[in-house]
Amino acid sequence: MRIGFAGYMGAGKTTCARSFESGGARVIDADAEAKALMARDCQVRDGLRAAFGDSVAGEDGVRTGELGRAAFQSAESLRALNRVTHPPLVARLERLVLECAEPLCILDAALIPLWNIEPWFDLCVWFDAPFETRFERLRAKRADIDERELVRRMRLQEEVMGVPAGGRWVRLPDSECRGYIVDFLETKSKVKVK
Questions:
Q1: Are 106 and 28 in contact (CB under 8 A)?
Q2: What does pTM read for this prediction?
Q3: For residue range 78-117, what is the model confidence (pLDDT) as tens digits?
Q4: Sequence-distant (≥ 6) Cβ neighbours of residue 48 within 8 angstroms
Q5: Which CATH fold would you assign to the domain 2-189?
Q6: Which contacts (CB < 8 Å, 24+ apart) does range 40-49 have?
Q7: What would you measure as the largest C-alpha separation in the chain, in angstroms?
Q8: Phi, psi dihedrals of residue 170, rounded to the nearest 5°
Q9: Among 13, 14, 23, 81, which is least packed, fewest CB within 10 Å?
Q10: In angstroms, rounded to a whole number, what is the distance separating the alpha carbons of residues 102 and 104?
């Protein structure tokens, strides 16, 4: 079974995804894969430098703090980041998801709806946490970002990608995620989930 977890930053998708790891699920973290890609792929680094200037990347690799500040300036700058990083990232994620041999594979990727990769999955879950809940979670995790800047970044993400609609998506609050996924898996695969 392949399941895609998407939602805005701070929605709870990563916490829910990790709760399945102890039962043997393979969790693919798109953010971690993106950072690894930026660290090893010279073309991506050069593309980021061309789009945002020399301050975002050097011989020591991509400076993610600088890149975040540059990319979250506007919807267009965020789209510029996406144009550079998304093609190789999506290709990598496709290989990881489609070649996954574990009985349960979860892709934790905020931007699944933006990439239109829903056909990869047996189930697509959108984590529907309220803005204030997401803000409080992010504020606790990202003390390095000013609160106004954090709100601005959250709003930009919403501007660039809307909430998905359609029959492929199940919208859940993160508090209901694990129960829904376990029920889905046990019904579909007739296997008990730990």
A1: yes
A2: 0.89
A3: 999 999 999 999 999 999 999 999 999 999 999 999 999 9
A4: 38, 56, 57, 62, 67, 81, 84, 85
A5: Rossmann fold (3.40.50)
A6: 41/88, 43/88, 44/84, 44/85, 44/88, 47/84, 47/85, 48/81, 48/84, 48/85
A7: 54
A8: -110, 125
A9: 23
A10: 5
Q: Answer whether 9's CB lies under 8 Å from 156's CB.
A: no
- Residue written as token pair 């980041």: 81
Instruction: Find tokens 């695969």 and name the residue.
Output: 189
Residue 130's nearest CA partner among 104, 159, 163, 165 is 163
State the helix-helix crossing angle for 64-71 and 30-40, rounded to 10 degrees: 110
Contact, 79 vs 112, CB < 8 A? no
Phi-psi domain of 29 (left: phi exceeds 0; alpha: psi -120 through 50; beta: other)? beta
